[in-house]
């Protein structure tokens, strides 16, 4: 039975009482998970809204604790790493990872970066061996599927697009995906939010449809193959 780990990074609610704008990325991700759970209601589902409940930033003490051997860690160091341990445990058991994130200042929100900093951890999600030469880091997790759902105020961030060089969100997610253990990555993108025109409406509608269709396709594949 697969486990879905759903991470939302927007600071907004799906329906936002304090603004005319709700979170588009969260809405699209909800379409994915709702459709998946329609097909497979008994699968385990883990949810974290890190946009509104952000993980702590790592600190000098955090780094020192990470590089202290387990048998030598103090109680304080174990406490410092408790959140990281919990987040990594959730990631480890996940088969499907859904990450929704708006593009903030052309990159990922600080809350999402904090989540990655807590989970990309030596001897937990990667190891390090200088015998590998110039590529000493190697991921320890594998076999997972990542669905990256992003929303942008502008447009043209795709390969060959007019703002390709300004896209620091999806390239960053692609780079970090291997440390999540993601062998397969799907991308669903909504654009034109700042323009609030027909292009935006079409982009959102297309992203919502893509999310539903992808969830149905992947859920069916799991049901038929068991993987």
Automatic annotation (TrEMBL):
<comment type="function">
    <text>Also exhibits azoreductase activity. Catalyzes the reductive cleavage of the azo bond in aromatic azo compounds to the corresponding amines.</text>
</comment>
<dbReference type="InterPro" id="IPR003680">
    <property type="entry name" value="Flavodoxin_fold"/>
</dbReference>
<dbReference type="InterPro" id="IPR023048">
    <property type="entry name" value="NADH:quinone_OxRdtase_FMN_depd"/>
</dbReference>
<comment type="similarity">
    <text>Belongs to the azoreductase type 1 family.</text>
</comment>
<protein>
    <recommendedName>
        <fullName>FMN dependent NADH:quinone oxidoreductase</fullName>
        <ecNumber>1.6.5.-</ecNumber>
        <ecNumber>1.7.1.17</ecNumber>
    </recommendedName>
</protein>
<dbReference type="Pfam" id="PF02525">
    <property type="entry name" value="Flavodoxin_2"/>
</dbReference>
<dbReference type="InterPro" id="IPR029039">
    <property type="entry name" value="Flavoprotein-like_sf"/>
</dbReference>
<keyword id="KW-0285">Flavoprotein</keyword>
<feature type="domain" description="Flavodoxin-like fold">
    <location>
        <begin position="14"/>
        <end position="213"/>
    </location>
</feature>
<comment type="function">
    <text>Quinone reductase that provides resistance to thiol-specific stress caused by electrophilic quinones.</text>
</comment>
<keyword id="KW-0288">FMN</keyword>
<feature type="binding site">
    <location>
        <position position="10"/>
    </location>
    <ligand>
        <name>FMN</name>
    </ligand>
</feature>
<dbReference type="InterPro" id="IPR050104">
    <property type="entry name" value="FMN-dep_NADH:Q_OxRdtase_AzoR1"/>
</dbReference>
<feature type="binding site">
    <location>
        <begin position="23"/>
        <end position="25"/>
    </location>
    <ligand>
        <name>FMN</name>
    </ligand>
</feature>
<keyword id="KW-0560">Oxidoreductase</keyword>
<comment type="subunit">
    <text>Homodimer.</text>
</comment>
<keyword id="KW-0520">NAD</keyword>
């Amino acid at each position: 039975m697969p486990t879905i780990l759903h991470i939302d990074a927007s600071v907004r609610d799906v329906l936002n009482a304090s603004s005319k704008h709700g979170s588009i990325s969260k809405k699209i991700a909800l379409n994915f998970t709702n459709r998946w759970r329609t097909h497979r209601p008994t699968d385990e589902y883990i949810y974290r809204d890190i946009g509104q409940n952000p993980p702590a930033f790592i600190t000098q003490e955090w780094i020192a604790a990470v590089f202290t051997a387990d048998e030598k860690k103090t109680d304080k160091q174990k406490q410092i790493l408790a959140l990281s341990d919990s987040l990594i445990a959730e990631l480890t058991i996940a088969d499907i990872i859904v990450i929704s994130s708006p593009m903030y200042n052309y990159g990922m929100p600080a809350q999402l970066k904090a989540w990655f900093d807590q989970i990309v951890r030596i001897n937990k999600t990667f190891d390090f061996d200088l015998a590998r030469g110039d590529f000493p880091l190697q991921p320890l997790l594998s076999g997972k599927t990542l669905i990256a759902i992003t929303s942008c105020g502008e447009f043209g961030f795709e390969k060959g697009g007019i703002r390709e060089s300004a896209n620091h969100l999806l390239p960053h997610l692609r780079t970090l995906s291997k440390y999540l253990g993601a062998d397969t990555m799907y991308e669903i993108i909504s654009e034109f939010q700042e323009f609030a025109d027909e292009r935006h409406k079409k982009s959102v509608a297309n992203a919502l449809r893509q999310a539903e269709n992808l969830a149905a396709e992947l859920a069916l594949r799991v049901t038929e193959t068991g993987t």
